[in-house]
Each structure stands twice: as C-alpha cells, then as structure tokens.
Amino acid sequence: MSGVLDGIRVLDFGRYIAGPWCSALLGDLGADVIRIEKLAGSEDRYIAPVSEDGAGAMFLQMNRNKRSVTLNPMKPEGQELVKKLVATSDVVVANLPPQVLKQMGLDYDSLCAIKPDIILTTVSCFGHQGPYSHKVGFDGIAASMSGTVYMGGWPDDPIKAAVPWVDFGTATTCAFGTLAALMERAKTGKGQMVEGALLRTALTFGNAAMIEQSLLGIDRVATGNRGQTSSPNDIFKTKDGHIITQILGPIQFERWCQMMGEEHWLSDPRFKDDLARGDNGEILSKRMNEWCGERTTQECIDALEEARIPAGPVYSPQQALDDPHVQASGMLKEVNYPGLSKPAPVADTPVRLTESNPGIARRAPTLGEHTEEVMHELGLDDAKIKALRDARVI
After folding, report:
1. What is the pLDDT of residues 336-345, one digit of tens each?
2. Assessment of whether the complete model's pTM goes beyond 0.85
3. Which H/E stretch holds residue 344?
4. For the chain, give me the number of helices (H) and strands (E)?
C-alpha cells in the first residue's frame, strides 16, 4: 500500500519531541525523512536509555520511519552538504529559535535561495513574534504560562502533567500545517513557512478557561482531580486501586443517582445541572469515594458499565501494556532495535485511514546508519565520503 506522502523528502533537524514527532508523523504517511544528527549523536537520542548503544525510549518512538545522517552543518563543507540536501527536499523541519536557524542557514530566506518552493516547518517555545521570541523553553514552561498548570493540583501546590502534551500537540498541529502547505504548493507551486509555538498550543488547549475568566471573572482555583464544570468527575480510591468517572449531562447523572440510591438528589437545586454539580462536586465526590472504598476496582467498573456510566481504571504503564483492549487494538507495535533485550512496544500512528493507512515501516535508525547511503544519493563517491569523514564533517 502506497503512502500519502510517497515521493516527499523531509529533512529533520528537530530535537526532543516537537520537531521529531512532527516529522515522524510525516514519515508514517510515507515521506522519506532524513534525520540530521551531530557526529556524536544528538542529545535527544540518549534520554532514558534502553539499548546497548544508549538509544532512549523516547528516541525509539520519535524517530521511526527515518534515516540517520551525521553531519556538522557549522563547517563550510557541512553547509555545502546541507545545501545539496535542501535542493533535493520538499520540507525542512527544525524546532530551533529564530537566531539559531539563521546561524545554521536554515532560516526561510536562506532555504528559498537554494530551493524556492521549499517548505520550512519551525517550532519554538514562544514563536517568532513578541518580546519573548528570543527565549528558549520547553513543554512545561509553555504549560505553566498558559494557566493549565495553575489549574492542576491544588491551590498551593500546582502540578504539571506527567506527559509532555504541549510538545505532542505542537508537533501534531505542525504536521497538520505542513500537509496544508504541501497541498497549497501542489496548487500554486509556492512553498511557505509553517510556524508552531509551544505557548500557542498550550493557550489553545486551555482556551476555554481563559474565555470563562475573561467574560465572567470567576477566578477559579485548582481542585485536584475533581472537575469543576460537572460531577462526579474525579478519581476515586477503590479497595485495590483507583478509578475515574466523568459524568456529564442529566441522563448520566440520573443513572448515577439511581445506582447510588440517592434519587432525591435529582430534585436538589444544588445539582440541577452540570455547572451546579461542578460547584458542589465535593459532596458528590465524597459519596462516590465511600461507594468505591467498599469495592474492588473491577467491581466498580462492572457496576458502572452496567449502569452505562463512563468510567475507567487508573493504570500503571505495565497495566496499560497488559490491558486486553490495548493489546487487541494493534496500537503498540513490537519494533526491534539493535541492543534491545526484546522488541519495544512502539505506539503506531494514532489515526487510521481506510485507503492509505499510515504506520511504522522501519525502526528508529542507529547513529549515522544511513550517512553513506544518502551521500551516494547526492552524487558523492567513496573517496569524497571518506575525506568528509576524516575531516569530521560527517
């Protein structure tokens, strides 16, 4: 089955998540993605190492469907190689601050001088406009500055999310923007710059709270795991673990009251609608905690499912791996990599297409695994490649 982006070449100068995951999604769709790394390997290759060569868990996920080329773009010969690569490519992905892009010759004007219809997809923390554009930053900084961390945890103890949702969200929207730019280029023949920013993503995801605050001045504070605009919407302790329920709307609330034996709450003005139930959620959560504390996790889930109330167990990573639905979904692909004790369960593309399904076609590359292959594609012979290696250019 051919990929949607067969014939499209992507140069990936990304690091960590926002850039690499964007290009990984493009690779899942069939693009030829060439990851450019430092000669000793880039920093993100070695986070949470799981293999004998030090490759990390995140690297295995972020860099499937890519070829690895080691290259020093700051040396004159390296800059010439970058120009050759750009001339054969359709997209350049780089999650770097604007000034660093300029230093590396990866700013849009420099790229267009090489290939006028190139698409440059960039990611930075704060974007290219505004007084913070020169600053560097990561996922947690953008999340904290968007108001979402403030609303997590408790009033005097804000807690950031355990997963880098801002990075993944930015990467996904950048892949979306890159696809749009490719479609536009197919119509007009013109390239363009696609710009993502971590703070913009975080502001987008947390926008409803800001809209409410601006219009109503409600000044909400954090309430831990308890939701504020519906209830029971919380995490509850069972006899052997925890579950979560997220009850929305009058029908689900009615089912829950009947299951609890609290039908009188249906006519209680404190619980007249979702917002009122959110405002008085502490009462409802207390009742649900009592009920859950008398039952095992499975007993709670079974009873809630029978009443058609949305609920789920709170899993550890191992429990998520062991879940029969997770296993049956085919979402986690067993992918080998040199030096692993066993194949790694790498998450497949999270969206399915019936006619051109994306997915993992190759494992993440070892460091510089495809350098010679790509150099040959650029027309370099073995002697030239050896000379570049000796000069520590590649």
Report:
1. 999 999 999 9
2. yes
3. strand 344-347
4. 17, 11
